[in-house]
């Protein structure tokens, strides 16, 4: 049973468990289940965008526009519901669709225009946060205070519970299951991997790789839209600069989760574990009395060290094998 | 004539035309924008970005990327700023800043070449680490009260032109000549163009990739000094998000993110464009909140058009090659018939 779990996910699980153990020993309050479950609110945005950026990265692309789509959807929800006066739930759906639209623009330009993903999503990052700022500017709302005054029903999205489990945990699980099934249990998922491993080969075997690539960006945009709605509900106001600091954490959890930045290899299980590791580390360090400003040091080092181990391991293992049993490598008798 | 045609076909030339077009269009709306004073100011405020773009171009040419430039800028500016504030000499501050930039660049380079970490991840991690180190070193405080003599450095004028601008532009041209004319300078784009080929030619690829990161680190440190001198104080968020602007500038200037293509002159012009757009909006009396939306749109439009143009040219070249081969074969068969 254990042997079926990929080694890297196993390592992540061990890191997660030891993290919970160590932080708990430093401050026993960390072992309080409800605190841990409620902390999901702090990193849910990073996690759910991370799930679908994993899909993007497996096709060999990258999406750095997720953080600004959060800000845009947040502003769209705020303006549609508070300034225009639409029903909050209609505004919510339209905002998520706006996120999907941003993703579609990214995807079409990258897949059909064949421009580098990094460049397009960089431009997209400027553009979407720019649109959010323009919307705020045109609607005459104070950019600093943001748009507030949401209904109780809307703030229940983040603060409500289902059978005692916070909604953010439920959303985390739902989005994870969707991403997992899409990537690991459907034909579409196999196409994503194939496209990432060798786009030409995938194209020749009859896969519409452009459609596959474009669709992953749409999914990533929609997930950013969901994250934007969630964050707006959690913080109780809509601002254009929400999600601005999410860029690095999103990429960190995807890469820490074992997805290759060059594409073709990875999985959402790793991303899920990595996002919980990074999320718990923030609360753990805060509870341990470390200032939030220093958390970057931990995540930064974790990122570099884990990738170094991931990258080195095959070569390193080969060398060790050569040293231990030189005869097998040299081929023996012919 | 041929030489002139060569120049106009270059990507840098198109970028330059675009820059001139921005100035002319905005100048039609508000003629003050075309005044020498404003052009001088635009150049002065983009110096920092030009220096960063030059360093980044070295890394991009080798086919890697450096996201840590903003972090190095902040850290080196803060450390040298504190030295200056506490009465240290300007020379010492400059040496320390360059040392920090070089060291972080070296770590980046070694991580990429020896540990085989993708440059994106390595520099992303270093970005976070340098930011935190800056916060720890400055204790989360802003570095203020820099000596007047240091702040004046950015304002010295020679013959009416800012001394710093002269130095940066001269440096830019020298670096450009090094990359284009010098044998070793051409190694950088050779590595990015075809790494396997570069290895076969005997180019010490790993060493030059490491060099590129060190150069980028040193340039970021120099940009940090310019920042400290021009702004006069260093906040804990100095240079936050600057890496994206610089990458966008380099891409606008025709530097390819997949390596091998581009020049520092192009990247420098790209940097001036990114900064001029902001001041152009002020002169056109457009509210400042349009800045990001417009730069984002411009970046996407330019890059996509460029990619489409390049692909069209590629197709044309392929067709011509094919036609030439067919013609050649016909000639050969005619020869046989004789």
From TrEMBL, chain A:
<feature type="transmembrane region" description="Helical">
    <location>
        <begin position="217"/>
        <end position="236"/>
    </location>
</feature>
<feature type="transmembrane region" description="Helical">
    <location>
        <begin position="92"/>
        <end position="113"/>
    </location>
</feature>
<dbReference type="GO" id="GO:0022857">
    <property type="term" value="F:transmembrane transporter activity"/>
</dbReference>
<feature type="transmembrane region" description="Helical">
    <location>
        <begin position="294"/>
        <end position="312"/>
    </location>
</feature>
<keyword id="KW-0812">Transmembrane</keyword>
<feature type="transmembrane region" description="Helical">
    <location>
        <begin position="156"/>
        <end position="183"/>
    </location>
</feature>
<feature type="transmembrane region" description="Helical">
    <location>
        <begin position="268"/>
        <end position="288"/>
    </location>
</feature>
<keyword id="KW-0472">Membrane</keyword>
<keyword id="KW-0813">Transport</keyword>
<feature type="transmembrane region" description="Helical">
    <location>
        <begin position="12"/>
        <end position="31"/>
    </location>
</feature>
<feature type="transmembrane region" description="Helical">
    <location>
        <begin position="43"/>
        <end position="62"/>
    </location>
</feature>
<feature type="transmembrane region" description="Helical">
    <location>
        <begin position="125"/>
        <end position="144"/>
    </location>
</feature>
<protein>
    <recommendedName>
        <fullName>Autoinducer 2 import system permease protein LsrD</fullName>
    </recommendedName>
</protein>
<dbReference type="Pfam" id="PF02653">
    <property type="entry name" value="BPD_transp_2"/>
</dbReference>
<keyword id="KW-1133">Transmembrane helix</keyword>
<feature type="transmembrane region" description="Helical">
    <location>
        <begin position="69"/>
        <end position="86"/>
    </location>
</feature>
<dbReference type="InterPro" id="IPR001851">
    <property type="entry name" value="ABC_transp_permease"/>
</dbReference>
<feature type="transmembrane region" description="Helical">
    <location>
        <begin position="242"/>
        <end position="261"/>
    </location>
</feature>
<dbReference type="GO" id="GO:0005886">
    <property type="term" value="C:plasma membrane"/>
</dbReference>
<keyword id="KW-1003">Cell membrane</keyword>
<keyword id="KW-0997">Cell inner membrane</keyword>
């Amino acid at each position: 049973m254990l042997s079926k779990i990929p080694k890297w996910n196993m390592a992540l699980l061990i890191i997660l468990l030891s993290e919970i153990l160590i932080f708990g020993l430093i401050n026993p309050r960390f072992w309080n289940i409800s605190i841990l479950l409620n902390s999901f609110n702090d990193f849910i945005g990073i996690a759910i965008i991370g799930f679908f950026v994993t899909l993007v990265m497996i096709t060999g692309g990258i999406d750095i526009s997720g953080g600004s789509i959060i800000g845009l959807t947040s502003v769209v929800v705020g303006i549609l519901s508070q300034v225009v006066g639409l029903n909050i739930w209609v505004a919510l759906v339209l905002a998520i669709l706006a996120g999907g639209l941003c993703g579609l623009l990214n995807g079409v330009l990258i897949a059909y225009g064949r421009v580098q993903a990094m460049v397009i999503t960089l431009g997209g990052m400027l553009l979407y946060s720019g649109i959010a700022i323009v919307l705020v500017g045109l609607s005459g709302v104070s950019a600093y205070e943001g748009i507030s005054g949401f209904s109780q029903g809307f703030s229940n999205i983040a603060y409500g519970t289902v059978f005692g489990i916070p909604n953010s945990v439920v959303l985390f699980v739902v989005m994870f299951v969707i991403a997992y099934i899409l990537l690991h249990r459907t034909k579409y998922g196999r196409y994503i991997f194939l496209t990432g491993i060798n786009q030409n080969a995938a194209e020749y075997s009859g896969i519409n790789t452009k459609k596959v690539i474009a669709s992953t960006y749409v999914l990533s945009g929609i997930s950013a839209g969901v994250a934007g709605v969630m964050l707006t509900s959690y913080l109780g106001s809509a601002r254009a600069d929400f999600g601005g600091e999410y860029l690095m954490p999103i990429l960190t959890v995807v890469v820490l989760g074992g997805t290759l930045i060059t594409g073709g290899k990875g999985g959402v299980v790793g991303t899920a574990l990595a996002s919980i590791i990074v999320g718990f580390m923030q609360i753990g360090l805060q509870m341990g009395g470390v200032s939030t400003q220093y958390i970057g040091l931990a995540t930064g080092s974790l990122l570099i060290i884990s990738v170094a181990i991931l990258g080195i391991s095959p070569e390193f293992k080969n060398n060790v094998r050569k040293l231990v049993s030189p005869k097998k490598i040299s081929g023996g008798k012919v | 004539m041929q030489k002139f045609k060569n120049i106009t076909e270059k990507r840098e030339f198109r970028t330059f035309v675009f820059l001139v077009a921005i100035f002319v269009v905005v100048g039609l709306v508000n003629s003050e924008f075309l005044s020498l004073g404003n052009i001088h100011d635009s150049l002065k405020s983009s110096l920092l970005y030009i220096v960063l773009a030059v360093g980044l171009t070295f890394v991009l040419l080798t086919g890697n990327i450096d996201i840590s430039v903003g972090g190095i800028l902040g850290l080196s500016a803060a450390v040298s700023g504190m030295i200056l504030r506490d009465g240290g000499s300007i020379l010492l501050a400059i040496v320390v800043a360059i040392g920090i930039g070089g060291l972080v660049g070296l770590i980046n380079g070694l991580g990429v070449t020896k540990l085989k970490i993708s440059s994106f991840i390595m520099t992303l991690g270093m970005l976070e680490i340098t930011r935190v180190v800056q916060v720890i070193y400055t204790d989360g405080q802003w570095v203020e009260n820099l000596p007047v003599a240091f702040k004046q450095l950015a304002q010295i004028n020679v013959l009416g032109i800012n001394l710093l601008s002269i130095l940066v532009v001269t440096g830019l041209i020298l670096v450009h000549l090094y990359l284009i004319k010098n044998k070793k300078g051409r190694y950088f784009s050779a590595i990015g163009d075809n790494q396997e080929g570069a290895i076969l030619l005997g180019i010490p690829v790993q060493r030059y990739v490491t060099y590129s990161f060190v150069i980028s680190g040193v340039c970021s440190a120099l940009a940090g000094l310019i920042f400290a001198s021009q702004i006069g104080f260093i906040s804990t968020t100095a240079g936050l998000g600057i890496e994206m602007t610089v990458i966008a500038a380099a891409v606008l200037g025709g530097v390819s993110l997949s390596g091998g293509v581009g020049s520092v002159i192009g990247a420098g012009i790209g940097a001036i464009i990114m900064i001029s757009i902001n001041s152009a909006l002020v002169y056109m009396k457009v509210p400042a909140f349009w800045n990001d939306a417009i730069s984002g749109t411009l970046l996407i439009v330019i890059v996509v058009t460029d990619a489409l143009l390049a692909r069209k040219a590629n197709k044309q070249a392929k067709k011509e090659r094919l036609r030439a081969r067919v013609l050649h074969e016909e000639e050969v068969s005619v020869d046989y018939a004789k």
